[in-house]
Amino acid sequence: MTDTRWAEAFARLPDYLSSHVLVSLTALALGLGISLPLAILCVRRPVLRGALLGIASVVQTIPGLALLALFYPLLLALAAVSERVFGKGFSALGFLPSVLALALYSMLPVLRNTVAGLDGIDKRLREAARIVGVTPWLLLRDIELPLALPVIMAGIRTSAVWVIGTATLATPIGQESLGNYIFTGLQTQNWVFVVFGCVAAAVLALVVDQLLALIQSGVGTGSHSRIALGALGLVAVTLVALIPGLTRTQATYIIGAKTFTEQYVLASLIQQKLNAAGLTASQRQGLGSNVLFDALASNAIDVAVDYSGTLWSNRMQRSDVLPREQVLKELSAWLDSKHGIRLLGGLGFENAYALAMTRKKADTFGIKSIADLARHADQLTIAGDYEFFSRPEWTALQKAYGLNFRAQRQMQPEFMYRAVASGEVDVISAYTSDGQIASLDLLVLDDPRHAIPPYDAILLLSPKSAHDEKLISALKPLIGAIPVAAMRDANARAAGGNTSADEVARWLAGEIAKK
Fold this sequence. Notes:
Blueprint: H1 4-42, H2 46-61, H3 64-86, H4 95-119, H5 123-131, H6 136-166, H7 179-188, H8 191-221, H9 224-247, E1 253-256, H10 261-276, E2 281-284, H11 289-297, E3 303-307, H12 308-315, H13 324-339, E4 342-350, E5 353-358, H14 359-365, H15 370-374, E6 381-384, H16 392-401, E7 407-410, H17 413-422, E8 427-431, H18 436-439, E9 442-444, E10 456-461, H19 469-475, H20 484-495, H21 501-514
Parallel strand pairs: 1-2, 1-3, 6-7, 6-8
Antiparallel strand pairs: 3-10, 4-10, 5-8, 5-9
């Protein structure tokens, strides 16, 4: 049987590569445009030079993902101010925060090498030029910069490789890139995608580095042919990468998806429904919970699936326990009045946070509920996803049951399930619609004090799409159509690593059609 994952990986390459090159090239150009003049300005000003290099060094110590994420809320706030003051905002999702963060990331090697290159020029040469009447500008243009250029090019090479590599981390803030392979592959255990994304990013970085090395060599030896060959190579690579993305038809609707398997499947299912209705759609995958909600509220995406408990606890800051119907009614009113978001309806299943452990270990300790777990928690280790221990649900569980575990660990959800199955951790924050609960024989612990609210999967529309009849008509068949058993099966298929989210979505659509 042919492994379709490779074919799908190659099919997505033109779009992902085009977006990756565009954001990397823009960020590098912006970074060079800022850092080169600053380096020239500060080279003979020790205080300014120390300050600039210090700031650039501090920026470099910030993890790439954190730096990218920090720009999103900042730009979101600026976009809101722009909307109020000028009547026109801008998208804070994806391209703009990625470019600004990557541009900052690119500056240190260029600053440092430019300063080093200009500092390394023989002072006697400068003095001789002044004696014969060469002006400072001509001295810089005709003597200093040409002599320092090989060292500057080395900095540009380093900067280019850093930017291309770090751009793979832009996926969680909505920027399509080769990182989409990696994030999607990790969540769905599709190791073909992970390897493909890593290799593609590495090859791109190596090709660009070697072409810049050719230019650097030409600069150092005075070979115009090498400089021209390297420059033509860079232009060719850029055009080959960008043309597919620039010529593709822009999607009318954008579907947002969070960072776990179920969301990838549901986003693919929604896209297939829209395409079947003659509507063009694309996906913004791997978004964090808050990023997805803010993107929906600001019209950066049009459609998304979220969960009632997430919005109830995290966005509304509600901790009271109400019947499911009342939660949905109040949530719908709040979404509409505060953000203009329309709750189109529930999909028919619940994906709640829950505490789970292997049935064998639960039987050993005599644990059936979270109340039972609390009596043994100080002997056990719990693992949660990256958000769980900072969410109100965890605070509510601790308050309701007095949970005090021996240790807490954070990890990717797919690794979390493997960790509890292998005994590396004892308890995990599971998702009730995850197919791995059954396949790994995990026991979902009862929550007798109802610390965790209902988590119905709900379909949300952005303010600009809230009354789009074509969109609503295409999505209406999904309302109440997905039972939890079907979603668990879909998640299990996708998490197996051998079936893509698109294929699972087609299977799920078939299951829905049977009912």
